[in-house]
Amino acid sequence: TQNDYIHEWLPQKEDFLRILLDLEAPPLPRTCKICGKDGVCRCPNCMHQPLLCTDCCRSMHVAHPLHRVQQWTGDFFEDSALHMTGLQLHLSHDGAPCPSASVSVQATVGGPSQLAGFDEDEWEDIDYIPLHLRPPVGSKYLTVIDMTGVHFMLLRPCQCVNAESYHKQLLRAKLYPSTFDKPSTVFTFLVLDDFLRDNVECGTSGMNYYSKLRRVTSSVFPHLVPDRYRELLQVARQWHLLKLLKWSGYQGNSNHSTKGDLALFCVACPQPGINLSPQDNLDDWRYTRTVVMDGNFKAEHMCERRPDDQVWLMDGCGFMVTNPLIAHQKSTCNNHKAISRASASHGKLNSTGVGATACARHGCFYPHSVVDFQQGERQLNMDYSLCNALSYNMNGIRNVICFYDVNCTYMKNLWRRVDNSTFLEIAPSLRIVAGIGMWHVHGHKKECYARYSPLFIRGSGWVDGEIIETLWSTLNIVSASTCGMTSPHRQELLDFQMNDSNFMKMIRMSTFGMGGNRGFANALATFQFPVYRGS
Length: 535
Hints:
Blueprint: H1 2-9, H2 13-22, E1 41-42, E2 51-52, H3 54-60, E3 70-72, E4 77-79, E5 88-90, E6 141-146, E7 149-156, H4 166-172, E8 175-177, E9 185-188, H5 189-202, H6 206-217, H7 229-248, E10 289-296, E11 301-302, H8 337-340, E12 349-351, E13 353-359, E14 371-373, H9 379-389, E15 399-404, H10 407-410, H11 414-419, E16 431-435, H12 446-452, H13 467-482, H14 487-507, H15 518-525
Parallel strand pairs: 5-7, 6-9, 10-15, 15-16
Antiparallel strand pairs: 1-2, 1-3, 3-4, 6-7, 8-9, 10-13, 11-12, 13-14
């Protein structure tokens, strides 16, 4: 157990601590590992943190310009920076200096003489600001944000006649510029990918993530590290879209005009032309779509100050839709929150929550089927979600089992609402069987339990109809940070979260029931599907 390992470690505690303290001191003799000169620099990011002279430290880190180095003061190692050793970043030419660059533009190497960007009259304690936090003076430099913190990097772009534009040179060096016109701040591809991973796995907000980077840069003076939080949010939005375009195989924005084009869907649900052949009998019960609908009131969204000044990057190409719809019908069953909240006051909220449709067996969100609630869980919002889900890769499929917490009320006039709306459409050939999840059905009347429980629906299989509740638990982690975002930014972040949720479902999905068990597949073939029609 964990306690056993800790008990074994306790007698070794002093040895561990002694080694940690030994690593703080320079080796004896204090000479450069490469040339044998006086060693004054060491790199904790390199294996065994070798002790180096200034020249060897610079040459050794040409391929690792974003390592954090330390310099010996005579008493201890203090944080330093590679630009203080004279290291420069050359764009193009595989990192070599541009042959067309004139010698006169080369920067003077060495440490900065003053604190650039600060007024000395304002900073009485300027001498106590660490040197590695002072930008280079008298030379062109970039502020580079990496997983190892915030760096100041001396930059030398390519000046050849046929050289690409400045921002393209940065991109080829895996540095993402925050602007196009004379960019001064760039983000490495590594830090952007790390931010996306932190966001989907830990729910880390942009503010918390950049606060961590400032502490990585300087654990004692994080408030003196340049603030690039706004630039991080702006670049992260662009990075989200570019990653989705890359994963989906698109080269240009004009190619993904279909709703839900940039979203992943369940690989196990029957989809004609994708995992079903034209010879399959789609009327067979094995090819029934089993869906579950639900609302989530944790994903609220505040009203915006400038709603007309927005830039939409996804615009319905993921899971979220753009145009909300409104309708409502009274309940004749018990007082369920999904219905009573439909007429609740929303105050200063632009959205009181979201509603979604997912596959009931595998828990994957349907593309372009997640809607915002303007004033509670109204029926037409959920109608729009369901109609989009039932039109996604459904050609030829005629049987659907739909689970929803309030299906006893919701399904009564579904077809009438669809027929009377110009925004809703369900194929007339679809036969929809209504059900209520195993947990929620016990909050209904006895008549609802007998009619809508999945235990009594033939062909539903062993399904509880509540899997979407598990999806909300992970989505709610980031919902708090999306509450105050702009509508496009919120949509993009929720789309990316749901896309990652579907991806993780896909890669962890068992082969059982999908050809991995031949006896199970043969048993499925002998069962005949009973015909159901929606009420």
